[in-house]
Structures are given as structure tokens and as C-alpha cells.
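Example pasted here:
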Amino acid sequence: MNKEVSKTRKDIQREELQRSPIFLLQKGRVELNDEVLFDNNVNYDTDGIIDIETGEYLTDDQLIEKDFGHVVFDNTEGVFLTREEAERYVKKYSYNYGRGLSREHRDWRVFCVSCIGRLDNILNELNSSVLEPEIGKTPLGK
């Protein structure tokens, strides 16, 4: 069993090269490119895009490979203090993160942003605290 090395907020800031980083777990989805609706080689209905040559519905990977669509990350599922905590969450609830997109076209990501305002002040107070590596346990006690 791998034992994780505990990190402080300052360690995380140095790794991410950002002040007061927090991590957004974002779920992706395939969005169709506008021009696909005018392509003569495809048809579409409420269930998806149909390849006229094969008569089959195109998968998300096929839509991306044929340049009919792209992945957008516009749904934030959660906010975490560390990247590792967010990735552990995805593994723990893997049934919710993996609708079949290949590794090349991941359908989730952990995105680092700097926080400002009151949250920034709270996190600055935690700078010397060691973060608990378990999901759901943070120095804030929530």
C-alpha cells in the first residue's frame, strides 16, 4: 500500500506555481461543432449523429476523431484543496467519471485556479498546516 506524503499549502503553491491554489474537478462532455449539422456525410436525430456510410451512431471518440466535436469542461463537480484529493475522489467514484472517452479525450480534469477574497485569507492561515490525505478530511474540519 502506497503511503502518501503529506503536503503543506506552501508545498502545493510551489508545485503549482500559483498563490492560494484550489482544484476544480470538472466533468467534460462532447459538444458538436456547428459545421457538422451541414455535413453531407452525416445525419442526426435526437439520439445522436449517424454516419450515412455505415448507418451507425458515432461514439464520442469518433465525433472527436472526425473533427465533428470537441470536449468542453463546463461542469464543476467539486472543489478540493489538493490535486491528489480530487484524483482520489475520481477513483473512488469512478462509475461517475468515465462514459467511454479514450485516454486521449478524457471526460474529466482537475483544473488549478488561484482563489481570492475571504477564501484566500482562510487558506493563508493554513499555509503551515499539513493537509490530511483522506477524502473529505481537511484542516477546516468539515
Q: What stands out?
A: The chain is about 25% helix and 25% strand. The beta strands are 21-32, 42-45, 48-51, 69-80, 108-114.
